[in-house]
Design a protein that fits this description.
Blueprint (H helix, E strand, L loop, with lengths): L18 E7 L5 E7 L3 E6 L7 H16 L4 E6 L7 H10 L4 E4 L2 H6 L15 H9 L1 H14 L1 E8 L3 E5 L14 E4 L3 H9 L3 E4 L5 H7 L4 E5 H6 L8 E3 L7 E7 H6 L2 H35 L3 E3 L3 H11 L12 H7 L3
Parallel strand pairs: 3-4, 3-5, 8-9, 8-10, 11-13
Antiparallel strand pairs: 1-2, 5-12, 6-12, 7-10, 7-11
Length: about 350
């Protein structure tokens, strides 16, 4: 298995009391107070990407911007490839304040707001802009409030991810029939599991840091993720086929521990939020550029690219999966998503 680029160990954030200094006695004998020195802030940013996904581009940019704009007072420590734990673990760590920031994928919906699970239904979004419009509107805002209330996780920014694609070790998949019995790793998201089961695969929920080894050892036959994640985690070393299913158009939520957020002075919150906004814009540009190059990159690394019958996949999922969640999803949510512009 590929090692993480660096074996950083999480450090506790230094909390220094703000200290005021008393100036020397002036000409008139008055005591002159100097401004208090702002305490340094360490931000541990955890994500499961390797060194090529949207969270990597975002966190590296955030690190450089904050270092520049605070003269080194705000330090971002980037922990990639799940070094501080998988996403489920990260939410718990954020609640107790042992991780300040991170990238959350779709898993948080099933963990904190399962009534919004229709957002994770494969083939529900017509385009990335459709997804953006839904998340920026009333549906997304209400869901983010649930993240905050139930997990103490505050959404500060949203970065585009490329569409999720299927990879397999030894099976060329062109139609749903080709998936029969395929042992496929999926995130622990109920609607993902239901969709792949409806398509004929044998979905296996698994934490992301375990995936490479499971593919290498043959515990599973395939996985699905955006191209940047596939490339960044070197899945091409243990998978032969890249099947462009484009089944989920996703995003990465750049989140902060609410406990950490509330500990910041108002000026630091504004400074951090602006750096997040600028880093989101940068990461979006990088991912858009990557999407145009990664297919060829993975091909050059030995993967065989297949363009399957997308309509056949979508028809199965949109017909068979929603009825299974009718009593779990927020009433009318799926219709609202489908009729949103984009």
């Amino acid at each position: 298995m590929k090692k993480a680029d660096s074996q950083l160990r999480p450090n506790r954030r230094q909390v220094l009391a703000t200290m005021g200094a008393v100036g020397a006695v002036g000409l008139g004998g008055a005591m002159i107070s100097r401004p208090a020195l702002a305490a340094p802030i360490t931000i541990r940013f955890n994500h499961t990407d390797g060194t090529g996904g949207e969270a990597y581009h975002f966190s590296e940019k955030l690190k450089s911007l904050l270092a520049e704009r605070t003269s080194g007072r705000m330090v971002v420590q980037n922990f990639h490839s799940g070094q501080l734990g998988a996403e489920k673990d990260m939410y718990d760590s954020m609640q107790i304040g042992s991780i300040e920031m991170g990238r959350s994928g779709s898993l948080i919906i099933s963990v904190a707001a399962p009534q919004y699970g229709a957002l994770e239904l494969p083939y529900v979004f017509r385009s990335q802009q459709h997804l953006r419009n839904v998340l920026a509107g009333p549906i997304g805002q209400a869901m983010h409030q649930d993240f905050l209330a139930k997990k103490g996780v505050r959404v500060l920014g949203i970065v585009n991810r490329g569409a999720r694609q299927l990879t397999t070790k030894n099976r060329a998949v062109r139609t749903p029939a080709d998936l029969a019995g395929l042992k496929l790793r999926v995130p622990e998201i109920p609607v993902y599991v239901a969709a792949w089961r409806a398509l004929g695969a044998s979905p296996t929920p698994m934490a992301f840091p375990e995936v490479f080894t499971a593919l290498q050892q043959g515990t599973i036959d395939g996985q699905e993720n955006p191209l940047g994640t596939i490339n960044g985690n070197s899945f091409h070393d243990v998978q032969k086929y890249l099947v462009l299913t484009s089944h989920v158009r996703g995003n990465g939520w750049m989140v902060a521990s609410e406990r950490f957020w509330q500990s910041l002075a108002e000026a630091d919150r504004k400074l951090l939020q602006q750096a997040v906004n600028d880093s989101v814009e940068y990461a979006d540009e990088q991912i858009a550029k990557q999407e145009g190059e990664l297919r060829k990159t993975l091909q050059d690394k030995g993967m065989t690219v297949i363009e399957p019958d997308l309509k056949a996949f979508a028809n199965v999922v949109l017909k068979e999966v929603p009825p299974k969640f009718a009593d779990k999803w927020k009433p009318g949510l799926l219709d609202e998503i489908l009729k949103t512009a984009g």
